[in-house]
Specification:
The chain is of the alpha/beta class. The protein is built from 6 helices and 6 strands, in the order αβαββαββαβαα. The chain has a single domain, classed as UDP-galactose 4-epimerase, domain 1 (Alpha-Beta Complex). The C terminus is likely disordered.
């Protein structure tokens, strides 16, 4: 239970996001998440670097708005911390293979040393979120990746990049 509803009488909801990705992330930022960074590299014909052996998994979520709106309007969410995720995880190797499939590339990743503090598995328990009407993710992992690839490729084209098209 969050403190605000009990102490201050405010109706609040805390949303805990797991590995969000999407069209508006900057793939060139020093803080870029793995998906836009891999997409940028792979569109440029560069092999992505995986820290570790590729078996680490993440619960990746593309759609952000539906979770926010559903939680904001659901009385059962008040005073709760809700995990916002897809309810499934993908290994980093699976991510690279899916990106290769979607972009019609065949780029093998480069494996580097694991990073200190990286968790081997991340999978959210979304059972509380699933009780909220209209919560269910509406964009699949592959569709979210396709939209993100298209956006990054289009943005690179506007900047004069040499990225190829998505199949």
């Amino acid at each position: 239970m969050l403190v605000a509803p009990r102490v201050f009488g405010l109706e609040t909801v805390a949303l805990r996001y797991f590995n969000v990705f999407g069209e508006r992330q900057d793939p060139t930022s020093g803080y870029a998440a793995v998906i836009p960074k891999f997409i940028r590299m792979m569109l440029a014909g560069e092999r992505p670097t995986i820290h570790g052996d590729g078996t680490a998994s993440r619960d990746l979520r593309r759609e952000r708005g539906a979770g926010n709106l559903a939680a904001a309007t659901a009385p059962e969410a008040v005073g709760r911390a809700i995990n916002v995720a897809m309810n499934g995880s993908h290994t980093i190797d699976e991510l690279v293979q899916t990106l290769n499939n979607l972009m019609s590339t065949n780029l093998e990743p480069v494996y580097g040393e694991p990073r200190a503090g990286d968790v081997p598995e991340s999978r959210a328990d979304i059972s509380l979120a699933q009780r909220i009407p209209d919560y269910q993710p509406t964009v699949s992992f592959e569709e979210g990746l396709t939209r993100t690839i298209e956006h990054i490729a289009e943005a690179a084209g506007r900047r004069g990049g040499t990225f190829s098209s998505v199949r």
